[in-house]
Amino acid sequence: MPSTPTYGLRYPALSNSPNVPQDIQNLAEDVEDEFERVDAKIATLAKTHARVDTPGDSAMSSYQSALTGSSVCGVAFVAPASGLVSIHFATAGYNTAGGAGAENKTSIWIGEGAVVNSGAQVKAANDNDMILHVGEVAYGLTGFATIAGLTSGNPYNVVLQHKVSAGTGTWLYRRVAVIPDV
Asked: In three state form, how does the secondary structure of the chain look?
């Protein structure tokens, strides 16, 4: 019995003896198999975002995950077959030092494994992939980074990391989301 080239759905050839109940059963089973495959793929895309609404502070001049008074903002994810994800992140905050030199910086750190804020480093937080707040006025910003070269099916975790150039930075909220390129 022939089948479609993309999904392998069976159908009767003109030379086959007619058997409508069997042909419909074959098609129904093939469609159900494809739905199960798609459902399994969707299940791997489970919760891939995190949000922290508790404000936190830092006076650290190097990137750190922890903020005083708040929890780490991060999420685990599984790399898609393409090995490519987009990471979107957002935050709002201000810096008590005020002025042009009072900067809060937020960047992303990626590690191997499904435990958030742990594992071998895959990507370090850096000033090229960061959100920059300047001064004492609180406002929100968003950023994103495209990450390539992840191993398909392997677990990873992404965490927001923070630092200041002067004074004490306050982060009012933080968000991070991983969007796989399937």
From this structure: CCECCCCCCECCCCCCCCCHHHHHHHHHHHHHHHHHHHHHHHHCCCCCEEEECCCEEECCCCCECCCECCCCCEEEEECCCCCCEEEEEEEEEEECCCCCCCEEEEEEEEEECCCCCCCCEEECCCCCCEEEEECCCCEEEEEEEEECCCCCCCEEEEEEEEEECCCCEEEEEEEEEEEECC
**What is the value of pTM for the model shown?**
0.76
- pLDDT one digit per residue (tens) for the chain, 182 residues: 899 998 899 999 999 998 999 999 999 999 999 888 887 776 666 668 999 999 999 999 999 999 999 999 999 999 998 999 999 999 999 998 877 788 999 999 999 999 999 999 999 999 998 999 988 888 899 999 999 999 999 999 999 999 999 999 999 999 999 998 87
Statement: 49-180 belongs to CATH 2.60.120.1340: yes
Residue extent(s) of CATH 2.60.120.1340 domains in the chain: 49-180
